[in-house]
Amino acid sequence: MLLEVAPDKLDLSLSVIQELKMDGVRILYSTMSSEKEPVIYTRHNNVITTSFPELHSLGIDKGTILDGELIYSDSYNQGKPDFEKVMSRINVKDDRKVAILSKETPCMAVFFDILYWKGESVMHLPLLERKRLLDLALGDQESACKIKWSIGNGQELFNLAKEHSLEGIVLKNPESRYYNKRHEAWQKKIAYLTSQVYILGLRKGKFGWLLGRKENGRIRPAGVMEFGVSPDERKAFYQISKQIITEEDKNFIYIEPVVQCKIKYRNITSKGHFRIPVFENFIFNN
């Protein structure tokens, strides 16, 4: 089941299941096949089993499908999940490289739900009952564990996520069945970071604004922003940008770095780019 975005003013004291949001790749882990090894699917239905041999022997009984997140926990970054490290392994197919990476950057699966148990669907059961079945299906181990959860502790958990720069929290109706789609019974509340940035250009074709951030007295490229800008704000900025164009190429129109805005974002990538930046508002200096 995919997550809806929680309303900004959501009451975090509600009696719902709360979990930390793991910053990784969503997976389904299936032992329904007659083959010896499990099958690991992404939410886009891509099979990634061969890329993660460290997850092949979790001791999960045949006839089981688990829902979870594939993460890499970086000990050099206070144990925080590293999304980029997981993504760097997704498409590696060479057996030798896969073997090396499974030792150098071993990933683990954090499971939070169970869809099939002993060959039968349990998606119709309430989430609390599925949590009990998950406890029976999986024991915590080096390469897999169950998500820790609580009820009625949302604000405290969200504050903890913000304090430690984690992605956010997930809120779930304890009586919800499992839907194979996005549903309001499961919602995510992201612990966004904010920043004041420069707009450096416009992308041709698909909408996007080039962003820049000031670092050591210089403005450095910081990725592309695609979300949060209203039609009226796009029009207003387009009229301004026509007057400050410096150059353009096949993909972008570049402008003078004089317009600033406030954004919210997940984190900064290893390349120094904002991850999933969202427009908040323009900044007008007197």
TrEMBL record:
<protein>
    <recommendedName>
        <fullName>ATP-dependent DNA ligase family profile domain-containing protein</fullName>
    </recommendedName>
</protein>
<dbReference type="Pfam" id="PF01068">
    <property type="entry name" value="DNA_ligase_A_M"/>
</dbReference>
<dbReference type="InterPro" id="IPR012340">
    <property type="entry name" value="NA-bd_OB-fold"/>
</dbReference>
<dbReference type="InterPro" id="IPR050191">
    <property type="entry name" value="ATP-dep_DNA_ligase"/>
</dbReference>
<dbReference type="GO" id="GO:0006310">
    <property type="term" value="P:DNA recombination"/>
</dbReference>
<dbReference type="GO" id="GO:0003910">
    <property type="term" value="F:DNA ligase (ATP) activity"/>
</dbReference>
<dbReference type="GO" id="GO:0006281">
    <property type="term" value="P:DNA repair"/>
</dbReference>
<feature type="domain" description="ATP-dependent DNA ligase family profile">
    <location>
        <begin position="112"/>
        <end position="215"/>
    </location>
</feature>
<keyword id="KW-0436">Ligase</keyword>
<comment type="similarity">
    <text>Belongs to the ATP-dependent DNA ligase family.</text>
</comment>
<dbReference type="GO" id="GO:0005524">
    <property type="term" value="F:ATP binding"/>
</dbReference>
<dbReference type="InterPro" id="IPR012310">
    <property type="entry name" value="DNA_ligase_ATP-dep_cent"/>
</dbReference>
